[in-house]
From TrEMBL:
Keyword Isomerase among UniProt keywords: no
GO cellular component annotations of the record: cytosol; endoplasmic reticulum; nucleolus; signal recognition particle, endoplasmic reticulum targeting
Cellular localisation: Cytoplasm; Endoplasmic reticulum; Nucleus, Nucleolus
Protein known as: Signal recognition particle subunit SRP68
Species for this entry: Salmo trutta
Organism placement in taxonomy: Eukaryota, Metazoa, Chordata, Craniata, Vertebrata
Known function: Component of the signal recognition particle (SRP) complex, a ribonucleoprotein complex that mediates the cotranslational targeting of secretory and membrane proteins to the endoplasmic reticulum (ER). The SRP complex interacts with the signal sequence in nascent secretory and membrane proteins and directs them to the membrane of the ER.
Length: 597
């Protein structure tokens, strides 16, 4: 797949090149080169949209070879390399400037590729610095060439800004904050002046470049000693919407680096009346930025931004919990070797419980935020009938997840004996059970199951009253929870609406069987007591009686059984029966021949 992708790039480069070169205008004032436009288009079309610096570096190398071949600017032959430099006398064609620009871009993209790889291989950082210096050197060459009177003023300014940006990147990686900040400020000033000098369409690109440079300037200011720079970085991340892209990744990286420096002073954290030492760097960085993340979520402009910030916070929390879990495994092995009794919850285990609490409570708040958004959409009238809108079942699922997270909260290690915590969790579960029950009732209303919905509304009121009675003993336990009194008011209103709908449905019920009978071809003679407008009665085939009529049962001929015969005793008839005499052999012979008859 990768080789196919590279082959497609090579095929498309021949098509893209003439279009790019059309942008490299030669004005009446001299040679003009749209430096920022060219590099931005090339980066977006050849890998940097997905952060693939290696692909962009390969594109720069191939374009350099095509330019050298087109201009006849070959550096030796296939057997020997002979270095050649572009001079001011050669500037008869704008492509000589493009040649130097592509050399700088190739070195810069290689440096950025090595920066990604340096996260796992620290030795590559030395090569990264070498490539960045090389890119800055090519940028300086481009700036000197643009000082020629053959080059127009706009190209000169863009070359100065480009060189300042590359120089600032070198100083930034060397952690020379003051020099880096000066270079970035110079770059920013030039682009702002260029943006103000051209139309709004052309100024958009310059403003985007200024936004990319601003986080680096804030970070340099923080390292120089400006304590407000961290807050400005957080505001920039908030305005970026917490989304993806290179800008967001750069902001996240700078904020993480800033917190890493602040985390060196953080040694412990207090929660539920217990102070726990924090020795894991990842946990320090996360806990240090927890307040900033929560403040950013609270200040989010819209629900989409808030959702992205919640996801970022949860991802950081999961990574931190995983790091603490690895340390717990090591601690468990050490206990097994030393045969220590594991009675009291260790500090590391309590820290794990604290981080798990943060994760689960963040899940609760995120789902609650999503539920509020769905509730607002549920109350809006649906304009598009083909588009599926939100349903009460969607909210039921969200509250199921909330209740599951709260159930996990009550089982955290080290908090089994904390009765106040257990009561608070139980109270929160009652609140969200009431809301879940409310939306289950609404789902029954949609299918006109009035009695079931009414019973569920009564249960919602029962939960709400129980919450209000228990909240009096727990101070400030409802400040982060939805308003129960508002739910009670809404349930009472829904109950009245439900009763009215049920009465109307009952009144409409007798008409429905009549309509059904007409549809079943019930004749008029069988529905004389019910009035209904039936247009078929005045038609050619009115349904007056059923013909032929149905069979009806009639009494059949009775059958008689003589049962008395079994109980009758008949008189003896022995005296009437003829007695046979005893004849012997003589009688037998007489009988044969008929003499005895």
């Amino acid at each position: 797949a990768a080789s196919r992708k590279m082959a497609l790039d090579k095929q498309n480069e021949g098509k893209i090149l003439p279009m790019d070169e059309n942008k490299e205008n030669t004005t009446e004032d001299g040679i003009g080169l749209e430096i920022l436009q060219i590099i931005k288009d090339s980066q977006q079309q050849h890998g940097l949209r997905h952060g693939d610096y290696q692909r962009y570096r390969g594109y720069c190398s191939r374009r350099l070879r095509r330019l050298r071949k087109t201009l006849g600017f070959k550096c030796g032959n296939r057997h020997k390399f002979t270095g050649k430099k572009v001079t001011v006398e050669m500037l008869s064609d704008k492509r000589y400037l493009l040649l130097v620009l592509m050399e700088a871009e190739r070195a810069w993209s290689y440096a950025m590729q090595l920066k990604q790889e340096a996260n796992t291989e620290p030795r590559k950082r030395f090569h990264l610095l070498s490539r960045l210096r090389k890119a800055a050197k090519h940028g300086e060459r481009l700036e000197k060439l643009c000082e020629s009177p053959r080059v127009d003023a706009k190209t000169k300014l863009e070359a100065q800004a480009y060189t300042s940006y590359l120089s600032g990147m070198v100083r930034f990686e060397l952690q020379e904050w003051k020099a880096a900040m000066e270079a970035f400020n110079k770059c920013k000033t030039i682009y702002e002046k260029l943006a103000s000098a051209f139309t709004e369409e052309l100024a958009v690109l310059y403003h985007q470049r200024v936004e990319e440079i601003s986080p680096n300037i804030r970070y340099c200011a923080y390292n120089i000693g400006d304590q407000n720079a961290m807050n400005e970085l957080m505001q920039m991340r908030l305005s970026a919407g917490g989304g993806g892209g290179m800008m967001a990744e750069k902001l996240e990286a700078l904020i993480t680096q800033t917190r890493a420096k602040q985390a060196a002073t953080m040694s412990e954290v207090e929660w539920r009346g217990r102070t726990v030492p924090v020795k894991i760097d990842k946990a320090r960085i996360f806990l240090l930025g927890l307040g900033d993340n929560e403040a950013a979520i609270a200040q989010a402009a819209n629900e989409e931004t808030k959702e992205r910030l919640y996801e970022t916070l949860l991802a950081e929390c999961r990574d931190t919990i995983q790091a603490v879990r690895e340390e717990l495994k090591t601690e468990a092995k050490q206990r097994e070797r030393s045969d220590e009794a594991s009675g009291k919850v260790s500090n590391l285990q309590f820290l794990h419980s604290y981080l798990t609490y943060i994760k689960l409570w963040t899940v609760v708040k995120r789902n609650e935020s999503m539920a509020h958004m769905l509730q607002a959409k549920l109350k809006e009238p649906q304009t598009d009938e083909n588009k599926r809108g939100p349903r009460p079942q969607d909210l039921i699922r969200l509250y199921d997840i909330i209740l599951q997270s709260l159930a996990e909260l009550s089982t955290l290690q080290g908090l089994e004996e904390d009765h106040t915590f257990q009561k608070e969790v139980a109270l929160k579960m009652l609140v969200y059970k009431a809301y879940r029950c409310f939306f289950i009732a609404q789902s029954y209303v949609l299918v006109k199951k009035w009695s079931e919905a009414l019973v569920l509304y009564e249960r919602v009121l029962k939960y709400a009253m129980e919450v209000q009675s228990k909240a009096k003993s727990l101070n400030n336990s409802l400040k982060d929870l939805p308003d129960v009194q508002e739910l009670i008011t809404e349930v009472n209103a829904e109950k009245y609406s439900l009763q009215a709908a049920a009465i109307l449905d009952t009144e409409d019920a007798p008409e429905a069987p009549c309509q059904q009978k007409v549809k079943d071809n019930t004749p008029l003679c069988e529905r004389l007591d019910t009035f209904h407008l039936d247009p078929t009665l005045v038609g050619k085939q009115p349904n007056l009686v059923q013909f032929p009529p149905d069979f009806q049962p009639i009494p059949c001929k009775p059958l008689f059984f003589d049962l008395a015969l079994n109980h009758v005793a008949f008189p003896p008839l022995d005296d009437k029966v003829e007695q046979k005499g005893k004849g012997g052999l003589t009688g037998y012979i007489k009988g044969i021949f008929g003499f005895g008859s």
